[in-house]
Specification:
Elements: H1 2-27, E1 48-53, E2 63-67, E3 71-77, E4 83-87, E5 102-104, E6 111-113, E7 118-125, E8 129-135, E9 147-153
Parallel strand pairs: 1-3, 2-9
Antiparallel strand pairs: 3-7, 4-6, 4-8, 5-7, 8-9
The structure holds copper (II) ion.
């Protein structure tokens, strides 16, 4: 009986030790286990990501082709001046009652892009057409020439 008692007390000590050792690991649950993915996290990224640079009052690329129903993330990177990006959701030359042909997951009239910063713009193309994007913040001498085009091609 003495041996059994000793074994039992050893088990109790081991269990207590294991509890003490394991508990800190349980307490350190990653915080993102409860917080949902932020909207621009890689998990929510569309398959296609186009990086758009903004050097010397020029968007590069200046022409982006999309297909109808395609989703894209434009990652606009800031250059030397603070600027803004406005993507017209209506096709060029649209008549008054034309519905928008681009939709935005986070619609903003003018996406502000600070120096050296990257701003993701999530776009879904819904109608064929040519859509103009331009700088919407007076960033300097050639501000007004700072434009680019998104061409949405019909589904094949
Ligand atoms: Cu500008």
């Amino acid at each position: 009986m003495k041996i059994i008692g000793k074994v039992l007390s050893n088990i109790v000590i081991l269990a207590a030790l294991a509890f003490v050792l394991v508990r800190p690991a349980l307490a350190q649950e990653p915080p993102d286990a409860v917080t949902p993915n932020p909207p621009h996290s890689p998990a929510n990224r569309p398959a296609r990501v186009v990086t758009v640079s903004t050097k010397d009052f020029t968007f590069a690329p200046q022409l982006i082709h999309l297909k109808v129903n395609e989703k894209v993330e434009l990652d606009v990177t800031g250059g030397t001046e603070e600027l803004g990006v406005r993507v017209n959701p209506f096709p060029d030359g649209a008549k008054a009652n034309t519905p928008p042909g681009l939709s935005f997951l986070f619609g903003e009239d003018c996406y502000k892009v600070k120096k050296g910063q990257m701003v993701p713009i999530l776009i879904e193309a819904t109608e064929p057409g040519t859509y103009t994007f331009s700088c919407c913040k007076d960033c300097g001498s050639k501000h007004k020439t700072m434009t680019g085009k998104i061409v949405v091609d019909p589904a094949t």
